[in-house]
Amino acid sequence: MGSRTSMVVALIGVTALMAGCGTSPALDPGKPLVVHLYGSDANMTNSLKDKLAGSPGLLAGMVGTTPLLALPESFQQRLRGVDPSLVDYGYAAEAYDAVMLAALAAESARTTQPLTVAKYIVGASTSGTICDTPAACLNLAKAGKDFAYRGVSMRRSGLSDTGEPSSASYGTLHFDRDNMINSNMTEYIGAGDESLASTAPAPPFTAYPNFTGGAKKPPALKIGGLMPHTGRLAYRSPPRFAAAKLAVADVNAAGGVLGQPVEWVDGDDGTDATIAAATVDRFIGLGVQVIIGASSSSVTKSVIPKIAAAGRILISPSSTSDELSAVADNGLFFRTAPPDHLQARALTDVIMRDGPHKVMILAREDAYGLGLQKNVKANLIAAGMPESGVDLVTYQTTVEDFSGLATRVRTGVPDAVLILGYDETALIVTALFAQKVGTFGAFNS
């Protein structure tokens, strides 16, 4: 063990020194290439363990970021009460808050008509008395008093004018030798600017219709879950479904919206634009006013035109691509997930701590992967890394054989590799290890 460790440590120093000279030296084919391995929100999850059965320690030492704050144990317990099988809580807070904002906006608008409700969503998070529970916020809304919801994920600030978080908290996660994230090592990094939250005045409250005088009650608020039960991101969805259902239950326990229980309508986006479009059509036919999803940025981008044309509200708890900030949506798309230019800053901070000289960024060829790859590169260069030290590599989302990609990584001789991928990350690290590329922990597990 001692001699092997010395060999690997020496290799790290030689690789870093030679990479710093701007060259890609030939590597002895019999020796491992030890790298710092990084990930981001879509692959920093305990769910990857199931896809690496028989390969203990392959992720040991991998570090990455995800939108995350220290979740109260009571909230985690309540989520497990909805779904006892949960292995992590990725984007659960954002899903919970997406449902809450929709419910609070409808109560404030005195209607469940989507075009009107949409005008109240940003204001429900930005002005007035701060409240952090469904009961407290709903009571303020019913009383016609301005309030600012500060729930589970939105503790730092409210939404911007474009309907997305102005600031966020990111967790720095570390994989251990059992291919599980060691929660004892999690750190938290703030990103964004609270001052960018919207300062526009919230729309005025109006009087409730006099239902006892014959006014027709509005339809109950129906919230549809457009998140993947199937497809490449299905492994990441259980916390989001659990949190959305928990939020609906909490709102109903506090009296519902406009005196009626909120209805949850389950759906699947399939991590696929065609499946998602069919689910949206079903939701529209069922009278769903607010849709929570989609999970991936590409699928969200694909359904926004349909949502806008139908006059429905879409709130994504996990789509992070910066592209979505400028998509034409008729004011009907919102997200509680922070945009990727914020995550790029957090990731850059994590990477630069290790002082790499050459970083290779492997990214899916979709809105999520390409957008985050571009942002991380820009931030690395702004942090002082030369442009020649950042190598961008992309791969098709349908690829299953990553041996060619692994060969390219090995011949490029980076000292750091960032993977911006989904569950295929398990296939990528397996292919890398087969080419003797991996973390120090992977070679010593």
Estimate nothing, just give the exact number of structural domains.
Answer: 2
Radius of gyration: 23 Å
Give, in order, the helices and strands. HEEEHHHEHEEEEHEHEHEEHEHEHEHEH
CATH level-3 fold name of the largest domain: Rossmann fold
Largest sheet: 7 strands, mixed
Task: Give the CATH class of the largest domain.
Answer: Alpha Beta
Class based on secondary structure composition and strand pairing: alpha/beta
Proportion of β residues?
Answer: 15-25%
What is the CATH architecture annotation of the largest domain? 3-Layer(aba) Sandwich
Question: Can you walk through the features of this model?
Answer:
The protein is of the alpha/beta class and 445 residues long. It has two domains: 170 residues, 3-Layer(aba) Sandwich (Rossmann fold); 211 residues, Rossmann fold. Helices cover 36% and strands 16% of the residues. The strands form four sheets. The chain has a seven-stranded mixed beta sheet with strand order 7-6-3-2-15-13-14, with helices on both faces. A five-stranded parallel beta sheet has the order 9-8-10-11-12, sandwiched between helices. Helix 3 packs across helix 4, helix 3 packs parallel to helix 5 and helix 11 crosses helix 12. The chain is elongated. The N terminus is likely disordered.
